[in-house]
Amino acid sequence: MRNIRLDLCYDGTRYKGWQRLKNTDCTLQGKLEQALSRILGENIEVSGSGRTDAGAHAEHQVANFHCSSEMPCGEILGKLRRYLPEDIGIYSCKEVSERFHARLNCRTKTYCYRIWNSDAPCVFERRYVYVMPQSLNVENMKKAATMLLGEHDFSAFCANKQMKKSRIRRIDAIDIRRSGEELTISVTGNGFLYNMVRILVGTLLEVGMGERPWESMAMLFGEKREKAGPLVPAQGLCLMEVTY
Predict the structure, then answer these.
(1) Residue 211 falls in which region: left (phi positive, over 0), alpha (psi -120 to 50) or beta
(2) Is 53 among the catalytic positions?
(3) Of the listed 7, 53, 119, 172, which one is catalytic?
(4) Whole-number pLDDT of residue 161
(5) How far is CA 179 from CA 49, 114, 120, 176, in A?
(6) Confidence of residue 163 (pLDDT cuts 50, 70, 90)
């Protein structure tokens, strides 16, 4: 069996997330598997580096699949670009070693969350930003962010209360920047829990609005979900990079 790697991007606005679901065919994994199965004439199962949320986007996602077809990768790429909808783009398609797995071999992921921090209209970017006109203390947000770095129990930042696996994760960097009316929060780590980045951003925004002291951030480790901030909307979230 051949092992094929795909590097791709997508606008997640109209999708129910990455993971295939039984009650809808409107998922990223489902669309890829449907197209590949048609192209290769065999049942294809795709593994992604991570399961992005419903409505979230990816500038650079990585996936892989196994197949017995001998179709050249260039031909697979061309047909994928022809059959997939316009909101899913394939950068590259190449054969890799049998041992490569998009999720299991992933070292780090970087997500970016975009906030339109103004009461001015944001018509053309509204699908990709969270509109939040309230004034924010960005310096306090940066101070709070430094307390999240390192390896911790991020249970308070996980929306899946039934998750039985370890909730220990490592955050390597959090970069908060303002450019005009837009505020971006980029988070790099070795893995993320369900809704973790969106809850983390919601908590930092509480700090920015003065609703939570920045010094209290470290007290959230190992706590229950209710202790952290709100879940911000998915449209502001984008998977930017995956490293191996």
Answers:
(1) alpha
(2) yes
(3) 53
(4) 77
(5) 30, 11, 15, 10
(6) confident
